[in-house]
Amino acid sequence: MLTTTTITQTREITPGCVWFSSCLPVRASADRMVHNHNSCFLLAGTRATVLVDTGMPSAWPSLRAELAGVLAGRPLDHVFPTHPEAPHMGNLGPLMEAYPALSVVGDLRNYHLYFPEQEARMRPMRAGEALDLGGRRLEFVPAVIRDLPNTLWGYEPEARILFLSDAYPYTHAHEAGQCLLLAEELPHMPGPDETRLVIERALSWTRHVPAEHAIAALDAFLAEHPVRIVAPAHGGVITDPVAMTRVFHDGLRAIRG
Amino acid sequence: MHITELAPNLLVLSACEPVDGRVSWVPPGATGFEPYNVFLLRTADRALLVDTGVAKHGPALLAALPGLAGARRLFVYASRIELDTLGNLAAVLASFPEAGVVTANPISPLELIHLPPGCTWHGGPVVHLRLNEDLGAVGFPHLVALEPVLRTLGTSWLYDREGGTLFTSDSFGGEMLGAPDMPVIRRDDMRHLPDAARLRAHLLAKFDWLAQADVGGLAAHWDRLFGSIAPGALAPLHGRVQAGRDLVAEMLARYRAAMLGPARA
After folding, report:
1. What is the pLDDT of residues B15-72, one digit of tens each?
2. Contact A184, A148 (CB under 8 A)
3. C-alpha R_g of chain A
4. Would you tell me which CATH number, out of the four given (2.40.10.10, 3.40.50.300, 3.60.15.10, 3.30.470.20), belongs to the domain B2-260?
5. φ, ψ for residue A221 (rounded to 5)?
6. pLDDT at B264
7. Which residues of A are less than 8 Å from B18 in CB distance?
8. Is the peptide bond before A169 cis (omega within 30 degrees of 0)?
9. Which residues of B make CB contacts under 8 Å with A?
């Protein structure tokens, strides 16, 4: 069981891109608790800002304050929920209330049922479209690893940041101060066991689909989208994509043995 | 909101939406009207609401629920973490401050909603079930949480061991209504059933990975599950409810074929 009270912390991972990290304790085994992120990211251009995912509703009190601090008076112009599960879009309601001018972007099927009074603020996007933020853009790209079909990833080609939602997840040790560390800064680089725990809980299809299908799709995607920074929702930020891609591959392969 | 009795002490509360390509779980090209269902089981002193539906239908649900629950203590079961299941949970808890919350998901539904300002809900703590555990802790020992054959993050089904209804969340909702005033419950009527190809298109709309799956494990899970239970009704959150032993057996056979795919059925 997961417990309550999530605290959001922030870290600028590259100029104009801020990581909001909220962690939940997860029971990995009878006697071992670990943490798992439910992160979101602010990407700021010269003209506009976009929040990629929204974090968990239980993190809203701290996220609201941290976000306002980072924006420092700038408006939040867009929110991009990668897919409609509560850990990714659960703060959409209060965000729309707090920032009355913002629009919601992404694959927005179903949202007219979830927010029937906010349809005018919905701006559906398809893979291949982009949001111009001024000096940088956020491209909407296919989510090749996902839980729901109506998922999109985000790609920022200038800084080569990939916002990939449920992919590249991993847990980290339940110790103070680790929630805002890059994967490469942790005492031990996450391994297949750390990523496998989240993969098999969050992506149940991995028990039934041969890992090589997903790995081939991911590798083809990465060949077309050079990445320097990987920004997952359920793991810390990664700055060595090559190493962590190998770990993620191994985690996928470990599910079916 | 249409209220229909599926079985004694089991109500289906439904609203209807046109199938217009705006929801992700209905395949392209589908037509008709889609029922959105939640379910209310009642005993002498308790009522269990199985999921809470989408926010659009919240006002109608909140208008109907007090009269249907009466003086019974309300419990809410959350089968998933998407907003077609949790969409009205906060509003229900605000209206029923003593309501209990039950789930088989390791994530507490309370982590995933915003209770409105001034909400006086005090029905906690959330009751977390393990899969295959019954709901005796909240007064429904004949209900058991099951692991779905096809699922997204943390989904569970509920099975009524006495009444035979299987509450299937986002599974088995592949039949739409031809007109909004048609009955939501298909009862014993074997005419014009959706074929396996249509049902497969519906399955793939939600579980698109099925197209690449090694279905051996799914078939084994299916056969193990439906070898141990014989549902008399399939109660999905979207789509028509199917009722009657023969009808349900036929629909399950079609869904199994749909899940396995054209070459493997």
Report:
1. 999 999 999 999 999 999 999 999 999 999 999 999 999 999 999 999 999 999 999 9
2. no
3. 17
4. 3.60.15.10
5. -65, -45
6. 56
7. none
8. no
9. 17, 22-25, 36, 54-56, 81-84, 86-87, 106-108, 110-114, 128, 151-154, 205-210, 212-215, 217-218
Measure A136 CA to nearest chain B CA, in Å: 30
Q: How far B135 CA lies from chain A's nearest CA (Å)? A: 17
Size of interface A-B (CB pairs under 8 A): 116
User: b/e string for A22-39 if b means 16 or more Cβ within 10 A?
Assistant: bbbbbebeeeeebbbbbb
**Residue A194: pLDDT over 90:** no
Ordered strands of the B134-135 beta sheet = B134-135, B140-146, B157-160, B165-169, B233-236, B241-243, B185-187
* Residue A16 to chain B, least CA–CA distance (Å): 28
Q: For residue A230, what are its two tokens?
A: 């990987």
> In this structure, which CATH number among 2.40.50.140, 3.90.1720.10, 3.60.15.10, 3.30.530.20 belongs to the domain A8-123+134-256?
3.60.15.10
Tally of CB atoms within 10 A around B121 = 18
How far is it, in rounded angstroms, from Cα B123 to Cα B134? 20
Contact B112, B85 (CB under 8 A): no
Most B CBs within 10 A among A7, A110, A200, hence the mutation to make, goes to A110
Which H or E element spans position A78? strand A78-80
In DSSP terms, A168 is beta-bridged to none
Alpha carbons A49 and B237: distance in angstroms, whole number: 37
Taken in order B78, B79, B81, B83, is the CA torsion positive or negative? negative
Can you give the residue ranges of every domain in chain A? 8-123+134-256
Tokens 């071992």 correspond to A32
**Residue B144 identity:** V
Alpha carbon B96 to its chain's center: 21
pLDDT at A247 over 80: yes
